[in-house]
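Protein modeling request. Please complete all fields; requests missing the sequence field cannot be processed.
Requester role: graduate student
Desired output: 3D structure, token encoding
Chains: 1
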Amino acid sequence: MKAVFALAVSLALCAGGAAYADCSYPPAPDHLPDGRTATMPEMVAAQKTVKEYDVAINAYLACIKLEHDDTISKLPQPKQGEKPTPEQKKAIDDLDRVEVQKHNAAIDQDHAVADRFNEQVRVFKSRSDTQKK
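Delivered output (133 residues):
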């Protein structure tokens, strides 16, 4: 199984790697302000950074989808009216699995960044509400 998986990954890299070299995983924001001490301009700047990260993640997802589809289209296809061979089906399944794993990891990371920021927004707002009283 490892050999087939390695073959599928190799195919993905060889077939689509050069065309989609810009499918680089965007780095998460390296700093989010602490809601207990942040200023409003810092929170607004962080919101902009989080939104830009979300846009970058969505561009990455679109890129890996294109890379996946392009790689699948370059695999040997069954003749018309024939079913894919077990090897063809396995290669497609492996490529699908890799794309789904990349997609899910990116979405999880995007949500984690948004969750961390939203927590700091709640802290910031609670601090602001306390100061008004």
